[in-house]
Amino acid sequence: MFKKILIANRGEIACRVAATARRMGIKTVAVYSEADAKARHVQACDEAVLIGGPAPRDSYLQWQRILEAAEATGAEAVHPGYGFLSENEDFAQACADAGLVFIGPPPSAIKDMGLKAESKRLMEKAGVPLVPGYHGTDQDPALLKREAERIGYPVLIKASAGGGGKGMRAVMSAGEFDAALASCKREAINSFGDDAVLIERYVQKPRHIEIQVFGDTQGDCIYLFERDCSVQRRHQKVLEEAPAPGMTAERRAEMGNAAVAAAKAVGYVGAGTVEFIAEQDGRFYFMEMNTRLQVEHPVTEAITGQDLVEWQLRVAAGQPLPLKQSELRMHGHAIEARICAENPEAGFLPATGELHVARWPQHVSFQRGDVRLDAGVGEGDAISPYYDSMVAKLIVWGEDRAQALARLDAALRDTHIVGLQTNVAFLRRCAATKSFSGADLDTGLIEREREALFGAPGLPLAIGAAAVVAHTLAVEALQQTDDPWSKRDGWRLFGAASRRFDLTLGDERHAVLLSRRHQGGMQLTVAGEAMEFAVNSTGTESHELLLGSGLAQQRVVVKVYAQGEKMAVFAPQGSAVLTEIDPIAHAGEGAAEAGRLTAPMPGKMVSFLAQPGDKVAKGQPLAVMEAMKMEHTISAPRDGVVAELLFAVGDQVGDGAELLRLEA
Known about the structure:
The protein is an alpha+beta fold and 664 residues long. The chain is built from 17 helices and 39 strands.
């Protein structure tokens, strides 16, 4: 076994690999960029080497510097994690040439499976079912369009060298094809350095089911069952689970054997995932093979009881597979939720910022447990624009799917993140939808459940307002001294005392009245409705609210985290951010300047779709930005005329920067 390995990655996966290596007594070397000098993965390893600037192309993609770091520290092997260089055959070959073991498949397997068109031809030869499509090398746009018409719309354009949803577009009609092809090619060349695409039939209501495979240097290959990854947004996974609901033993064996045949066709070694598109009737087609460990591997670990990183290390060291196919067993059900810094209400636009608060449910990390949290960041850390938007992976296990769903809901309820937008509330709503809870799964689930996911009312105003009042009272109680004039308890010699709170929730402003009776007790009036109010606070964050009286009384336990005027409230019913307004401090503030189009986050200008003097209509695309490896389109908020472009294509743009001016 290795004595020391270098982990050529960052974030959660680098911490994950380091945890298993430490348990096995293997020393670890981290590499890091200037932006990651204080990152968790640097602290998790025994040694760390700075390899370049913040941008991946200046650090984590600089494989020559990584090899130099391995040589300087005496590492015997390199674990690439996922993303970055994990599926780069040149890097794998360079490791071998430098006398290092690449903890992954041979370069030839990466190459064969890395190009989608080539892999399709190999799979066809191996007898693995394929989706009807065009996988040729001729990339003439006119030919591609003719092939799309031959296959029949809708079709899916996919970057041949890609993955992770990048360079992928669904095209519903011939009129959309040219623009979609151009966008795919732009995204593909920026992400992978190759703009070749393939075209496939777009399967209606498909499920995304993948098989975990493992091969060793002795020529053996097995599968560790399946994962259902159908719940996706923008072709990227949101919720993953194992085993796949509704999977029969016969179909599992059929898919597993097909996945093993695919792996053997390229002489595969190590951990890999064969991804299939599955029809609702059970027919399945090869989609692609990811020649690395997957983000969602913990759900497989949860149901099999195996540590897949340990398997990777043992196989890379030349040991045989730890178990034979007949020795593998499944137990229970596991679900993983990807917690990301993003705004679901704005098309899942990635977000950046500091995690001022990051509180989690009771959990284990990087090992099997009923509730597992794998994260590379924590409270006080930041999500930067340089890397992907993942904050953490939340994995739950249950004896059956119903118990796993219940544990997922409770774990998401107890996940409190403040300081940047996340998808935690969205994940909770998604898991509770009729489609997901009822296992009616396909890749269109999010769109099908749009009303439940994006039209949900959120945290009731009464609970949010009561929580803000409770927090304010708790803070004032701590500020009291023996001086009676310091008390803010509303005492009056005669009569009741009232106090007004001006709050905003979303775009609406609300006046909340707190009344204290002379004989004791409090009343809260919210949106014109008066109710009895009592509170028991533990410090300034935890509050037990009692709203109403008699049998109608509602008891709600909330957490409140304050950042200046903003109060983030978390309750079993949901969460919300309210602002307590000081009218004097905000006196004289006017409306925001109209006619501005600003960057929703830091990124690079890809193109402008209108020029000065052009008349544009509301909703018309005006500019394209690239941020966090994805393209984002900025559209006109109203009809108008483009007055001025304020950046050039290729410029780096800061968060909130004005991109162009629009006149009436």
